[in-house]
Amino acid sequence: STTTSRPTAATATATAAPPTSALLALTQEVQISIYTYLRATDLSSLQRVSRHFNDRSLINAIIGHTAEHVYPPDLTQGFDTPEVGGPVNTQTGAGGTGPDFLTYEMLRNMEMLVVARVLSRPEPPLGEREQGFYVSRSW
To answer: Distance (Å, rounded) from C-alpha 114 to C-alpha 74?
Structure first.
């Protein structure tokens, strides 16, 4: 009589392919669209625990997409300047000659700059409020 051995949990785990995230299987454009719904503080937390979120090209793409497509450009202009984020937060690559690397801290600075600029604008007249949203300073 022959006995068949069943695979143990240890052998099944050793031979199984590593788990993949369905999120990481999406194209980078779709991922960036999803990531722009997260706040800068959430992305910063993810950066500390995941290599995927610590990728400089991904960080630059997320921040660039947010600056160009999420907020109006007139509200984000200058978010990456030393006047807004300070000289310590501006990073350059390759000994100062390479491209600038943006950080999630810069994304947070952008978010704060947008809020400050929106709050500093005068409230639109009542007749123009139907065309979109506005932020009231009286709340």
So the answer is: 9
